[in-house]
């Protein structure tokens, strides 16, 4: 009965081309995600000059929807 038992390792087939593409794609995707997370966490030195020369300018957002219609009616009423 002991002679009937086969303790040899099972045969593992070679990975196909698509399995290799999937494996390496997941590997590079994980590296890319780690780089993105590190870019968020780690501070970046600000060696370039900020936009302080435009500090006097103010930008107002354009109203949308019903507010835009009200603004246009006010402008028409004044003109």
Automatic annotation (TrEMBL):
Can you list the GO cellular component terms from the UniProt entry?
A: membrane
Looking up InterPro entries in the UniProt record yields:
UPF0239
The record's subcellular locations are: Membrane
Keyword Translocase on entry? no
Q: Which UniProt keywords apply?
A: Membrane, Transmembrane, Transmembrane helix
Q: How does it sit in the membrane?
A: Single-pass membrane protein
Query: Is-annotated flag, keyword Membrane?
Result: yes
Domain of life, per lineage: Eukaryota
Give the matching Pfam families. Answer: UPF0239
Question: What's this protein's family per the entry?
Answer: Belongs to the UPF0239 family.
Question: What name does this protein carry?
Answer: Uncharacterized protein
Q: Which organism is it from?
A: Corvus moneduloides (New Caledonian crow)
């Amino acid at each position: 009965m002991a002679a009937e038992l086969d303790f040899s390792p099972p045969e593992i087939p070679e990975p196909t081309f698509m399995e290799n593409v999937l494996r390496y794609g997941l590997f590079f995707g994980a590296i890319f995600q780690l780089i993105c997370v590190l870019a968020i966490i780690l501070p970046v030195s600000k060696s370039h000059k900020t936009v302080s020369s435009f500090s006097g300018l103010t930008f107002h957002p354009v109203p949308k929807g019903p507010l835009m219609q009200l603004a246009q009616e006010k402008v028409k009423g004044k003109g």
